[in-house]
Design a protein that fits this description.
With 522 residues, this protein is of the alpha/beta class. The protein contains 21 helices and 10 strands. Strands 1, 2, 3, 4, 5, 6, 7 and 10 form an 8-stranded mixed β-sheet that branches. This is CASP10 isoform 1. It comes from Pan troglodytes (Chimpanzee).
Length: 522
C-alpha cells in the first residue's frame, strides 16, 4: 500500500486530479505504526471499540470514519483534527487545510473530547522510565504484557480507574513519578469547567381537548430572563408587538415565526457543534409518568395512546422504558429519587423523562392533584445531583393539561392580562446548566389538544417524526422543528383551535440517535 501511495502525484500538481480515497491512501502511506495506534486511541468513543481493535492500518481507521459519517469528501475536518493532534501537520495539505486553518476551526468544530486530548498529551509526556515507575506502582492490577504509555492509559480507562470526571489515580501517579504533568491535568479541569455553553430558546405551556393550560405574556418574559441575557434580548427584540389576541391566525403566525427563527438558529449553531456520544453500553433509560385518573380533575381519556407510542418508539431507539401510571406526589418523589441514583445511568448515553398529566403555569399535577414545578422535577438530574448523567443529554417531554373544558379565546387574552394569578413562574422551569431539553406541548398562553381515542397532537406527532427522521440521521432539534410544523397545521373539528409546540434547550452539541436495525411499525 505504501509503495503505491508514493508513486502518485502530489496535491500541488495542477494537472493531476486525485480522488478523495486516493488522498486518504497517500495519507496512509505517510503514517507509521505508532501513528495508527494514536489514531485508534483518539477515535475511542466515536468508533466502536471492536472495529478499532481490528484496525491494522490508517486506511482501516479511515474506512470506519467514513462508515460512521465522521469523514467525507465534503467535510474531512475530523481527519484534519486527528492529523493535527498527532503532529502530522504536513499531511493536512492533502485535505486542503493548513495548520492555521485547523487551529482557527478547532474551538467550534473539535470532536476529540477534552479528556481524550488530555490522555494523549500525558502519553507524550510519559517517557520509558516514567512508564516503568508507573507500572511498578500498579503492578498488581496490570496484565503481564508489554505496554506503551498510550496503551497504559487506555487500560486504566478501560478498567474504570480513570474517566473524564475521575482523575485521582492519574494525579497520584503524576505526583509521584512526573509532577510536571499535573499542569496538564489542571489545564484540562479549567477547560472542562468553562466548556459549558447554553444556546437558548423560548418556553411554552399546554392543555388538551376539553382542557387547557394558560401561561401569560409576563410568564414568558420571566421564563426567558432565566436564560442567558444576550439570548433573551435577541428573542425579546424579535417578539415585540406579538401580544396574544383572540384569533387563531395570530397564534399560527407568531408560532411559525418562532419556528423559523428556531430552525435558523439551530442550523447555524449545530453546524459548529459536535455530536453527543451515542455508543456506550446502552442508550439509556426512558421514564414515562402517565396520569389518567385524579381526585377531582377530569380523567385524561386517550392518554394510554400517548404512553403506548412513547414506549414503543423509545424502546425502538434502544432505551429501557419504565412506565408509572397514576402517580401521586409521594410516588413521584420516589420515582425521581430512584432515577437520580440509578447506577444504570453510568453506562447510558442519554436520559428521557416523559410526563402525561394535567398541569398549569410551569408545573404538573400528580394524580392526587399536588402541583409540582417542572424545575423541581428536572433539578434532580443536574450534574451535581446526578453525576452519572453529567455532560449527557437529558430530555423532558411534557404533555400537561388544566381545567375541564376548552376555554374561549377571550379567556386566553384575559389570563395574559392578569399574570398575578399565576401560582408559579415559568422562570423556574429549566435548570441553569447545560445538556437539558424541555419539550412542552404549546406556546405560552395557548391550549394544546388531546384526542380522547387517538392521543395528543404533540406526543403523536413527536413519536411519528422520531420514527420518520431518525433513520435520516436528523438531530433532535431538526425533528422538533418538523413537529412544530406538523402540529401547527392541525385544527380542531370547528376549525378554530390551533397549537404550536416549542422546545427549550441548553444542549451543547447535536443529538443524533443511531439508526435502529429494525423497522418500527406504529
Amino acid at each position: 500500500m505504501k509503495s503505491q501511495g508514493q508513486h502518485w502525484c502530489s496535491s500541488s500538481d495542477k494537472n493531476c486530479k486525485v480522488s478523495f480515497r486516493e488522498k486518504l491512501l497517500i495519507i496512509d502511506s505517510n503514517l507509521g505504526v505508532q501513528d495508527v495506534e494514536n489514531l485508534k486511541f483518539l477515535c475511542i468513543g466515536l468508533v466502536p471499540n471492536k472495529k478499532l481493535e481490528k484496525s491494522s492500518s490508517a486506511s482501516d481507521v479511515f474506512e470506519h470514519l467514513l462508515a460512521e459519517d465522521l469523514l467525507s469528501e465534503d467535510d474531512p475536518f475530523f481527519l484534519a483534527e486527528l492529523l493535527y493532534i498527532i503532529r502530522q501537520k504536513k499531511l493536512l495539505q492533502h485535505l486542503n487545510y493548513t495548520k492555521e486553518e485547523v487551529e482557527r476551526l478547532l474551538p467550534t468544530r473539535q470532536r476529540v473530547s477534552l479528556f481524550r486530548n488530555l490522555l494523549y498529551e500525558l502519553s507524550e509526556g510519559i517517557d520509558s522510565e516514567n512508564l516503568k515507575d508507573m507500572i511498578f506502582l500498579l503492578k498488581d492490577s496490570l496484565p503481564k504484557t508489554e505496554m506503551t504509555s498510550l496503551s497504559f492509559l487506555a487500560f486504566l480507562e478501560k478498567q474504570g480507574k480513570i474517566d473524564e470526571d475521575n482523575l485521582t489515580c492519574l494525579e497520584d501517579l503524576c505526583t509521584t513519578v512526573v509532577p510536571k504533568l499535573l499542569r496538564n491535568i489542571e489545564k484540562y479541569k479549567r477547560e472542562k469547567a468553562v466548556q459549558i455553553v447554553t444556546p437558548p430558546v423560548d418556553k411554552e405551556a399546554e392543555s388538551y381537548q376539553g382542557e387547557e393550560e394558560l401561561v401569560s405574556q409576563t410568564d414568558v418574559k420571566t421564563f426567558l430572563e432565566a436564560l442567558p441575557q444576550e439570548s433573551w434580548q435577541n428573542k425579546h427584540a424579535g417578539s415585540n408587538g406579538n401580544r396574544a389576541t383572540n384569533g387563531a391566525p395570530s397564534l399560527v403566525s407568531r408560532g411559525m415565526q418562532g419556528a423559523s427563527a428556531n430552525t435558523l438558529n439551530s442550523e447555524t449553531s449545530t453546524k459548529r457543534a459536535t455530536v453527543y456520544r451515542m455508543n456506550r453500553n446502552h442508550r439509556g433509560l426512558c421514564v414515562i409518568v402517565n396520569n389518567h385518573s385524579f381526585t377531582s380533575l377530569k380523567d385524561r381519556q386517550g392518554t394510554h395512546k400517548d404512553a403506548e407510542i412513547l414506549s414503543h418508539v423509545f424502546q425502538w431507539l434502544g432505551f429501557t422504558v419504565h412506565i408509572h401510571n397514576n402517580v401521586t406526589k409521594v410516588e413521584m418523589e420516589e420515582v425521581l429519587q430512584r432515577q437520580k441514583c440509578n447506577p444504570a445511568h453510568a453506562d447510558g448515553d442519554c436520559f428521557v423523562f416523559c410526563i402525561l398529566t394535567h398541569g398549569r403555569f410551569g408545573a404538573v399535577y400528580s394524580s392526587d392533584e399536588a402541583l409540582i414545578p417542572i424545575r423541581e422535577i428536572m433539578s434532580h438530574f443536574t450534574a451535581l445531583q446526578c453525576p452519572r448523567l453529567a455532560e449527557k443529554p437529558k430530555l423532558f417531554f411534557i404533555q400537561a393539561c388544566q381545567g375541564e373544558e376548552i376555554q374561549p379565546s377571550v379567556s386566553i387574552e384575559a389570563d395574559a392580562l392578569n399574570p398575578e394569578k399565576a401560582p408559579t413562574s415559568l422562570q423556574d422551569s429549566i435548570p441553569a446548566e447545560a445538556d437539558f431539553l424541555l419539550g412542552l406541548a404549546t406556546v405560552p398562553g395557548y391550549v394544546s389538544f388531546r384526542h380522547v381515542e387517538e392521543g395528543s397532537w404533540y406526543i403523536q406527532s413527536l413519536c411519528n417524526h422520531l420514527k420518520k427522521l431518525v433513520p435520516r440521521h436528523e438531530d433532535i432539534l431538526s425533528i422538533l422543528t418538523a413537529v412544530n410544523d406538523d402540529v401547527s397545521r392541525r385544527v380542531d373539528k370547528q376549525g378554530t383551535k390551533k397549537q404550536m409546540p416549542q422546545p427549550a434547550f441548553t444542549l451543547r452539541k447535536k443529538l443524533v440517535f443511531p439508526v435502529p436495525l429494525d423497522a418500527l411499525s406504529l
